[in-house]
Amino acid sequence: MTYCLGILLRGGLVLASDSRSNAGVDQVTQVRKLAFLPTAAGCAVAIMSSGNLATTQAVVSTLREMAGSGQPGLDLSAAKTLFEVAGIVGAVLRAVIDRDGRFVAPYGDAAAGFLVGGQMAGEAPRLFQIYAAGNVIEATDRAPFLQLGETKYGKPILVRALTIETSLEEAAKLALLSFDATLRSNVSVGMPIDLLSYVTDSFSSEDVKTIEVHDPYWMALREAYGAGLEELIDRLPTP
Q1: CA 236 to chain centre
Q2: What's the rounded Cα separation, in Å, for the pair 184 and 186?
Q3: Which ranges of 43-154 would DSSP assign to H, the alpha helix?
Q4: Residue 26: its pLDDT value, please?
Q5: Beta-bridge partner residues of 78
Q6: Quick check: 199 and 207 in contact, CB under 8 A?
Q7: For residue 8, how far is the Cα from the chain centroid?
Q8: What is the crossing angle of helices 168-185 and 216-235, to 10°?
Q9: Which sequence spans correspond to the domains of the chain?
Q10: CA nearest 76: which of 122, 37, 127?
Q11: Is this prediction's pTM over 0.70?
Q12: Which helix (H) or strand (E) holds 116?
């Protein structure tokens, strides 16, 4: 299992992913699930993945190898919109599953899913989810976040507190609290957390922070949030 979260904002994007890969109780490893895709100059596009690790790695590797190939429908460097990028990811995902799925089936599920977020020149930042079938949905101002993997524990705080107008700083804070709830509830999601805050029109892939379990801010945030919840509960009227 995994947890990946993408948030679309007026000011940019916040993307976050955990690092745990689990193929059984004795095969737990750390894997980076947030990567940047090779696109045209003046663009910045990140991808996050969930599902069968062999499938996700095959998709990302294929996308990188095909960049600059000039092959229609597969060359990310020729894409003009982020919707086109998401479509290429979906097409490659379908091809990998069609190729490998029947061989994987006796041992497990080859399915995978992706979040693709970033900004192409001439567009505002956009955020897409690519399902295992290769089809795509897009985040909107009314539904400004998308999730992959273990989604249920981290969703309530986002629904209550997040809007398209939320600042990047506040959204990053909410994203980490969403991960805190998930980590406390499901051991198949694990540290470290890779967190990207993307500022509109920056076209930068630099602002990625890896948050380890003993990160001082992470520890202070969890402690303050827990204490605040206890205090709030004490002030609420009894039934």
Answers
A1: 35
A2: 6
A3: 53-66, 82-104
A4: 57
A5: none
A6: yes
A7: 11
A8: 80
A9: 3-235
A10: 37
A11: yes
A12: strand 112-119
According to the model, what pLDDT value does residue 27 have? 60
Residue 24's pLDDT band (boundaries 50, 70, 90)?
A: low
Q: What is the pLDDT of residue 31?
A: 86
Residue 134's contacts (CB-CB under 8 Å, 6 or more residues apart) are 90, 91, 93, 94
Average pLDDT, stretch 152-172? 97
> CB–CB of 137/86 below 8 Å?
no
Res. 222: pLDDT tops 60: yes
Residues 6 or more apart whose CB falls under 8 angstroms from that of 56 comprise 33, 49, 50, 112, 114
Q: What is the pLDDT of residues 120-138, one digit of tens each?
A: 999 999 999 999 999 999 9
DSSP 239: -
User: Hey, CA dihedral for 222, 225, 231, 234, is it positive or negative?
Assistant: negative
Q: What DSSP element (H or E) covers 178?
A: helix 168-185
CA–CA separation, 33 and 56 (whole Å): 9
pLDDT value for 40: 85
For 48, 59, 171, 179, the CA distances from 19, given in Å and listed in that order, are: 11, 18, 20, 12
58 alpha carbon, distance to own chain's centre: 17
Q: Please tell me whether residue 158 adopts helix, strand or coil conformation.
A: helix
DSSP string, 47-79: EEEEE-HHHHHHHHHHHHHHTTS--TTT-GGG-
Is domain 3-235 annotated with CATH 3.60.20.10? yes
Going by C-alpha positions, the residue among 130, 145, 118 that lies closest to residue 88 is 130
